Amino acid sequence: MKKCKFALVLGVSAALGLGASQASASLIITAVFDGPLPGGDPKGVELTATANIADLSIYGLETASNGAPSSGVPEATLPAVALNAGDHFYVVNGNGVDFTQWFGFAPDVTVAAGGAVNHNGDDVIILYESGAVHDQFGETNVDGSLTAWDTLDGWAYRNNGASANGGTFFASNWSFSGANAWDGDDGALDDGTNALSTPPMPIGTYVPEPASLSLLGLGGLVMLRRKA
């Protein structure tokens, strides 16, 4: 009689990916939003750690406005805190009150009004790592008005699996509400919220691998049958 035995084999991508994630900490831009509340607030970004980061202060942010080029220098440095892989981190323009109202929780960092994340939907957000461009939303030297990535009174959210781009932006790596999608969602008393908006922005949903690869990325096991 033939007997069937099963061998457990660690997915190749998991074995390779584990070493890579441990070797290089990374932070990426996963959301950009320009709210409908007075002053166009809340304005800011969601950042996501794709690996453990011991010191977030190696990263900084800049906004390049109205089709201008990047200055090459971050306008704000992130705080010296640690993040775990999968953590989401929220940076907003101004005092953060409108962010808290809109999203229902407080931001992690507020920067001075008119600073590093003061965008109006047609501006570029740049994330620096150790002084070099690490990731970017939008195209420098381009006014984003009426482009695919125009987030005026709306939002953009990065597609699962789309990684840091080193400064070369691809709109196809993002999902968009469409410009002016949040118009009218501020409420009669400016008491609107993301949850009641149309469409609401995803919050903290980004994962660094598409769902179809997540098992391998987590060390999924492949069952191989062999004859005895």
Q: What descriptors fit this protein?
A:
228 residues, Immunoglobulin-like, 6-stranded mixed beta sheet, 4-stranded antiparallel beta sheet, globular, disordered N terminus, disordered C terminus
Written description of the protein model:
The chain has helices spanning 12-23, 97-103, 214-217, and strands spanning 4-10, 27-37, 41-49, 59-64, 76-77, 88-93, 109-111, 124-129, 132-137, 155-158, 174-176, 221-227. With 228 residues, the protein is mainly beta. A six-stranded mixed sheet has the order 7-6-3-2-10-11. Strands 5-4-8-9 form a four-stranded antiparallel sheet, with no helix packed on it. A hairpin with a 3-residue loop joins strand 2 and strand 3 (41-49). It is globular and about 45 Å long. The N and C termini lie close together (9 Å). The model is unreliable at 1-25 and 211-228 (pLDDT under 50).
